[in-house]
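Reviewers asked in the last cycle whether our approach scales beyond single polypeptides. To address this, we selected a multi-component target totalling 223 residues and predicted its structure end to end. The input consisted of the following lines:
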Amino acid sequence: MKFSERLFQKVSDIWEKTHQHPFVVGMGKGDLPVESFIRYMKQDYVFLIDYSKLFAFGTVKARDIETMAAFAKLLHETLHGEMDLHRQYAERFGITNEQLEETKPTPINLAYTRYMLNVAQNGSLEELISALLPCMWSYWEIGKVLARDYQGASSHYLYGEWVTMYSSDEFGSLAEWLINLLDQLTEGKPEWELTILEEHFLTTSRFEYMFWDMVYQGGEWPV
Ligand SMILES: Cc1ncc(C[n+]2csc(CCO)c2C)c(N)n1
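The resulting structure, written as structure tokens, was:
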């Protein structure tokens, strides 16, 4: 069994729970309150500023030029592709780029990015990829499920662009590149090392769920 298949099995419960979360279902059905989506966009924007640094760490930890270049490309595409989606949405809601950047991360947002940045600084390349992968892979899964199971989700006036972006083959190929890289890097690794990687993957999959729940509920600091 490929290591990625083992990871997929390990997180099947939490990913299934994510597919059923009212925020995700609301984007599919198109009835998610717009205030929740705006809260998500703002929190996600500051999340992405930190997340993109993980790709910079990937470039530092890569062991060949091809992998270095691929991480550098992902860094560029996150800053200019994915974050553009957020800037365009913000513009539609009358939110400026400055307001987006000034968003204060909630406790869950901060805990999630700090967990990954800690792994990036202190762990191996394999650990880094295991920690950052649920973010990309689970979004691809969500995008595909929404596009497949909810009629009209890809053309919804608000959430359609989100669904189209994350269900696209272009986005899928980025996720697949990382999945294949992790499969290659983990070939022949001892069980104790694989267990550590599996734990990172499960932890950040749980954080993904908590991020959706946080933006749905509010998730602000107590005072
Ligand atoms: C909380 C949260 N989790 C995952 C993603 C998805 N995502 C973040 S970076 C990246 C790589 C391609 O730019 C992808 C797919 C998100 N936006 N927000």
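The chain has a mean pLDDT of 97. We regard this as preliminary and will revisit it once experimental data from Aim 1 are available.
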